[in-house]
Specification:
- It is a single chain.
- By secondary structure, the protein is α/β, with parallel strands linked by helices.
- The chain has 2 domains: 203 residues, Rossmann fold (3-Layer(aba) Sandwich), CATH 3.40.50.150; 55 residues, N-terminal domain of TfIIb (Single Sheet).
- It has 9 helices and 12 strands.
- The strands form 2 sheets. Strands 1, 2, 3, 4, 5, 10, 11 and 12 form an 8-stranded mixed β-sheet that branches. A 4-stranded antiparallel β-sheet has the order 6-7-8-9.
- The site of S-adenosylmethionine has 20 residues, from helix 3.
Length: 286
């Protein structure tokens, strides 16, 4: 079967294994951090658009407090998400081009932004976020990799369900050409059905790794004010931050809240409120 570039088996015929390969519990730390980031918006964040919502695992942790609209281009992943998030609105669409004709307090593009691998597409996705972000609202992007902090390496994960289904993966990530904006993940999925039959699937994914400058410039070009907390942290910087936090003995409530672990790479844009925008675009008066 032929697939369009950037479309993968993991999100089509293997989508039913998603919750075993990447269990919802693993998204709770990012969800806690995102809740804090949403709290920094000029508007009270209640309605959120999640672009590339996948199996709805991040949404599952956010939906108690927020009204979520979930967009993904994969019908199979939307079906998985509907199973765990029946109360959320689901829409099939491409995050580069979808236009829902309404605005949200916040637009989130979590790890799905990894599947944007060239600057033209990044511009389009950030344009989609701007088009759906209410004045005073916030757009939040959480890429796994950036050009400055990328390190090649390997990883693994997976889980088992109560029916005895087991889904696990190994991955090797490397950068075929540091001069471009993407890296490559080589995956091996081992999928065991309750009757003991096992399938092993190998698949290479191309994942974006833009520089911090590209992120900040593209956010600003779209009309967002990039948030100074936008960050790309190397694994060593992340470890140092965690040790520093663990060493703090007397902590105020604010410091404890700061203990929420922010994702390593986080890019945040604020859409100026109308008044600020009008002031910025009108000629200076004397
Ligand atoms: C890693 S999964 C997202 C997981 C999700 N954060 C969750 O909570 O389950 C990546 C998703 O991005 C989607 N995706 C990739 N490119 C897309 C695009 N251009 N527009 C919309 N969805 C896209 C895939 O279909 C897939 O469901």
């Amino acid at each position: 079967m032929t697939r369009a570039p950037g479309e993968y088996r993991l999100y089509s015929d293997l989508a039913g294994w998603w919750s075993l390969i990447s269990p919802p519990a693993q998204y709770s730390a990012d969800a806690a951090a995102l809740t804090q980031v949403f709290d920094s918006a000029a508007v009270d964040v209640r309605e959120v658009l999640d672009l590339g919502s996948g199996g709805g695992h991040i949404a599952a942790h956010l939906k108690e407090r927020l009204a979520l609209t979930l967009v993904d281009r994969s019908a199979e992943m939307l079906a998985v998400s509907r199973g765990i998030n029946p109360e959320c609105e689901h829409v099939r669409g491409d995050m580069r081009t979808v236009r829902l004709g309404r605005a949200f307090d916040a637009v989130l593009v979590h790890d799905a932004i990894d599947y944007i691998t060239c600057q033209d597409d990044l511009r389009q996705v950030i344009g989609t976020a701007f088009a759906h972000c209410r004045p005073g609202g916030i757009a939040v992007f959480v890429p796994d990799y950036t050009a400055e902090t990328f390190l090649s390496g390997s990883g693994r994960g997976g889980s088992t369900d109560t029916d005895g289904r087991q889904g696990s993966f190994r991955e090797w990530i490397w950068d075929p050409d540091p001069a471009d904006d993407w890296v490559q993940a080589e995956y091996e999925f081992v999928l065991r059905a309750p009757d003991g039959t096992v399938q092993v699937v190998r698949e290479a994914h191309r994942l974006g790794a833009f520089s911090r400058d590209v992120w900040l410039r593209t956010l600003a070009d779209a009309g967002f004010d990039p948030d100074p907390r936008s960050a790309a942290r190397s694994p060593a910087e992340q470890r140092a931050g965690a040790e520093q936090r663990a060493g703090a003995e007397q902590r105020t409530g604010a410091e404890q809240r700061a203990d929420v672990r922010m994702p390593a790479n986080l890019f945040v844009g604020h859409r100026p409120a109308e008044a600020e925008r009008d002031a910025a675009s009108s000629p200076a008066s004397i």
